[in-house]
Design goal:
alpha/beta; Metallo-beta-lactamase, Chain A; seven-stranded mixed beta sheet; 7 helices; globular; binds zinc ion
């Protein structure tokens, strides 16, 4: 028995400002193409587990999470994987309290120790709720420690944390494989697995190339054309994708420097700018 009906949902594909940028009248920010509206980055994996139960796992929880969740009808959360504690990736953590109520269960937040520490500092009203003046409706979360290359097995999936560099900040990407009951990756993975989510990356350190081999789908940061100290440019992202040689690549964390159409026209075969609402998996990618 293995996972079924898996959908990989791109909840958001924009850089930290979100697109349109407040007060900006550039062609991307004023575009009528819905693919040029990019909320802050995050993803959901929705599937049926080997016991036939519905599951949803999140990668990051952006400040736009509420809108993203409503768009896709998310109704539960069986765990959250955090790449790093920047505002655009974690400031929606408050919103998951609704999943707590729907499921009547606490939610595991998987993160590296420094990230967990930051979350406790930022969300004191959640993590130190005993200090709140009034007891109110806050999220119910617990910590699970992540370490690079130490896999986490959840409901028939394996999440492998992979070290990435975001400028000088070490952060995590995640490689997701479907596994058998012994935790061994299946020979026949359901589409779009194996998939790796590599957001906010400026370079892939030497030890992380190997765990990113043999991917069906690579999701990779590609901020813009101009150089940036903490994100890959168009050329850097295309070159990294070329070297990793997945079956296909989707780019995320895009700025307003280019429209979807402009980016699409410049992409080499097998590479596509992602867009908000893109769903890979069960019967949904027929238009790609
Ligand atoms: Zn970011
Ligand atoms: Zn703009
Ligand atoms: Zn960041």
């Amino acid at each position: 028995m293995s996972v079924k009906d898996l959908e990989f949902i791109f909840l958001g594909t924009g850089t930290s400002s979100g697109i349109p940028v407040i007060g900006c009248s550039c062609p991307t920010c004023t575009s009528s193409d819905p693919r040029d509206r990019r909320l802050r980055c995050g993803a959901a994996v929705r599937f049926t587990d080997p016991n036939g139960l519905p599951r949803t796992l999140l990668i990051d929880v952006s400040p736009d999470h509420r809108e993203q969740s409503l768009r896709h009808g998310l109704e539960r959360c069986d765990g959250i994987f955090i790449t790093h504690a920047h505002v655009d990736h974690v400031f929606g953590l408050d919103e998951v309290r609704r999943y707590n109520s729907l499921m009547r269960a606490p939610i595991a937040v998987h993160a590296e120790p420094e990230v967990t520490e930051a979350l406790h500092r930022i969300f004191q009203h959640i993590y130190a709720r005993q200090d709140n003046a009034n007891d109110s409706f806050v999220a119910d979360l617990y910590d699970v420690v992540l370490e690079p290359l130490r896999p986490v097995f959840l409901h028939g999936l394996r999440f492998m944390p992979v070290r990435l560099l975001h400028g000088r900040l070490p952060i995590l990407g995640f490689r997701i494989d479907a596994v058998d009951s012994k935790g061994v990756p299946l020979r026949d993975q359901p589409d779009p697995l194996p998939l790796a989510w590599c957001t906010d990356v400026s370079s892939v350190p030497p030890g992380s190339w190997e765990p990113l081999q043999g991917l069906n789908t690579l999701v990779l940061d590609m901020l813009r054309d101009r150089a940036h100290p903490t994100h890959m440019t168009f050329d850097e992202a295309v070159s990294a994708a070329d070297s990793l040689a997945p079956s296909r690549t989707f780019f995320i964390h895009m700025s307003h420097d280019s429209t979807h159409q402009e980016l699409l026209q410049r992409m080499p075969p097998g590479m596509t700018p992602a867009w908000d609402g893109l769903v890979l998996g069960t019967d949904t990618n027929s238009d790609l």
